[in-house]
């Protein structure tokens, strides 16, 4: 290469603009990401961006638009305490209303200027010299002092690797990527899985399909859904007297706090609830053989308790078959169960959950020692107070390890973590510009040891089931084994003793004029 060409390239590189720098990068625009953005603005932090890989906000409530999609937590508890909604139309809201609520929060708190849509994060790398994060996105690079990962555990669908699936001639899609162009009327549809999505999909599509086959690897405990419209008078009262909305939320919260002991310390107390669930099955399923196949053998609560008034009645219809085993093979349009039973299908819908204990975002985060968060978590996810990880300074996750709930609203946990985020930023302000906090390995291990000790008596560990709460080694790295009040207390403020403080190197001041001559004279004497 000619010398002038080399010089031209060096000059172009030198003239390349520096990446944009912001104080905080928030990844994701679901409840966690939007909540973080609101909290940042309320703390007076405006130098931040929210990076969203999709074309609109909403997170899992944008992605999951399948027929019948709704929340199993009461509406007034499944909303931010700082953004109450007096106009929820039902006691349990559907996906369209929850998504509309998140859009309204975005506008009410002026978040649009901070949000960058279609801006997927490709890589995040900690720069140990400059003490900042280098963030590569689909729309270009930027740097940040702090990263808040709010991608959530229910963002990346998990589809099993089924032999022969590529030979299937019909439509195949996951519940979280519903193909609204697929016409199911008069078709033979196979639904794989019996989780929260499947029990909503099955009764929604059963009346219109010619035949529905449900592949059930493990039956779920399903309780009645006590849902009703919220009347105009109630909504008027909540608008005119906001305290009534707060009181309603408080009652819903208190009831669930009282339930925690049964889930965490005394699972035997769930026996009555289990009997009610058995009665719910018997009321709708008259065939003894089918009823037996739909009755779980594990303690209720070990997997998430599901809510539906329509699921069992749909399974009792003549155009529905239940294969009580997983899907093991596909041979063209023939689906083969693990027990050898076969069925024909025109459409396959996977309701097989998400990458929860192996979140893909962890492969894109590179810490201080040059390894990814996924590598750091190869033996199981763990963090300090569900928020920070050793070796990943100034990086925080919302809905991190062991922050999930089995009986209440995740919004309560998110808001507690936002308190921790706010104090984290205050501590950095006190420490001075360019400072960083890195969770100490000992502190992370101590916190997780306490969590896992508490987990030993919970229904999630002792109930006799295998659930998505457990990782590949059988360790429960998702659920919080105590009350939301206890978690809020544990995340009220940052304890600096649990962190190493990193500071930028101080520039070396040049010696004063004549200092060298004076030093030589002294040495000579």
Automatic annotation (TrEMBL):
What is this organism's lineage? Bacteria, Bacillati, Actinomycetota, Actinomycetes, Kitasatosporales
Q: So which cofactors does this thing need? A: FAD
Q: What does this protein do?
A: Catalyzes a Baeyer-Villiger oxidation reaction, i.e. the insertion of an oxygen atom into a carbon-carbon bond adjacent to a carbonyl, which converts ketones to esters or lactones using NADPH and/or NADH as an electron donor. Thus, can convert bicyclo[3.2.0]hept-2-en-6-one into the oxidative lactone products 2-oxabicyclo[3.3.0]oct-6-en-3-one and 3-oxabicyclo[3.3.0]oct-6-en-2-one. Is also able to catalyze the sulfoxidation of methyl phenyl sulfide (thioanisole).
Q: Which Gene3D superfamilies match?
A: FAD/NAD(P)-binding domain
What name has this protein been given in UniProt? Baeyer-Villiger monooxygenase
Describe the family membership recorded for this protein in Swiss-Prot or TrEMBL: Belongs to the FAD-binding monooxygenase family.
Q: Does the keyword Acyltransferase apply?
A: no
Gene Ontology MF terms in the entry: oxidoreductase activity, acting on paired donors, with incorporation or reduction of molecular oxygen, NAD(P)H as one donor, and incorporation of one atom of oxygen
Q: Where is the composition biased (Pro residues)?
A: 504-514
Listed A to Z, the keywords are: FAD, Flavoprotein, Monooxygenase, NADP, Oxidoreductase
Give the region (Disordered) as residue ranges: 502-525
DNA repair recorded as keyword: no
Q: Which Pfam families match?
A: Pyr_redox_3
Q: Where is the composition biased (Basic and acidic residues)?
A: 516-525
């Amino acid at each position: 290469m000619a010398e002038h060409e080399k010089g031209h390239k060096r000059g172009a590189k030198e003239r390349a603009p520096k990446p944009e720098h912001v104080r905080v990068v928030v990844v994701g625009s679901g409840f966690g990401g939007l909540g973080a953005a609101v909290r940042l603005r309320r703390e007076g932090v405006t130098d931040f961006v929210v990076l969203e890989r999709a074309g609109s906000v909403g997170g899992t409530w944008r992605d999951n638009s399948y027929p019948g999609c709704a929340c199993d937590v009461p509406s007034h508890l499944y909303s931010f305490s700082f953004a109450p909604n007096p106009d929820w139309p039902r006691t349990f809201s559907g996906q369209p209303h929850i998504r509309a609520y998140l859009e309204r929060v975005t506008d009410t708190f002026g978040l649009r200027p901070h949000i960058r849509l279609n801006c997927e994060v490709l890589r995040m790398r900690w720069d140990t010299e400059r003490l900042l994060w280098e963030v590569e996105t689909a729309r270009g690079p930027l740097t940040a002092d702090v990263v808040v990962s709010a991608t959530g555990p229910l963002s990346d669908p998990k589809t099993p690797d089924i032999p022969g699936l590529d030979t299937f001639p019909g439509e195949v899609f996951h519940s979280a990527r519903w193909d609204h162009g697929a016409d199911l009327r008069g078709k033979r549809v196979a639904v794989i899985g019996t989780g929260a999505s499947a029990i909503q999909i099955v009764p929604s599509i059963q009346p219109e399909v010619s035949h529905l086959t449900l592949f059930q690897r493990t039956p779920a405990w399903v309780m009645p859904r006590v849902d009703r419209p919220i009347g105009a008078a109630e909504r008027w009262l909540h608008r005119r007297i906001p305290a009534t909305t707060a009181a309603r939320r408080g009652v819903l919260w208190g009831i669930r706090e009282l339930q925690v002991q049964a889930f965490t310390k005394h699972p035997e107390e769930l026996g009555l609830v289990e009997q009610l669930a058995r009665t719910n099955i018997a009321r709708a399923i008259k065939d003894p053989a089918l009823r037996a196949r739909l009755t779980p053998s594990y303690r209720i609560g070990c997997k998430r308790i599901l809510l539906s008034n329509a699921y069992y009645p749909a399974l009792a219809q003549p155009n529905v078959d239940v294969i009580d085993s997983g899907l093991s093979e596909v041979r063209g349009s023939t689906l083969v169960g693990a027990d050898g039973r076969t069925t024909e299908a025109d459409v396959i819908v996977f309701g097989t959950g998400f990458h929860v204990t192996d979140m893909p975002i962890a492969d894109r985060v590179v810490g201080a020692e040059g390894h990814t968060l996924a590598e750091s978590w190869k033996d199981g996810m763990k963090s300090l107070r569900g928020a920070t990880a050793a070796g990943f300074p100034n990086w925080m996750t919302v809905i991190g390890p062991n922050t999930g709930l089995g009986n209440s609203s995740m919004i309560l946990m998110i808001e507690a973590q936002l308190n921790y985020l706010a104090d984290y930023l205050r501590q950095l302000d006190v420490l001075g510009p360019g400072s960083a906090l890195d969770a100490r390995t000992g502190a992370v291990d101590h916190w997780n040891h306490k969590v896992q000790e508490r987990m030993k008596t919970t229904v999630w560990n002792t109930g006799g089931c295998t659930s998505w709460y457990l990782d590949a080694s059988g360790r429960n790295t998702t659920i919080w084994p105590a009350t939301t009040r206890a978690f809020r207390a544990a995340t009220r403020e940052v304890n600096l003793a649990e962190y190493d403080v990193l500071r930028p190197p101080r520039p070396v001041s040049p010696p004063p004029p004549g200092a060298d001559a004076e030093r030589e004279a002294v040495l000579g004497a």
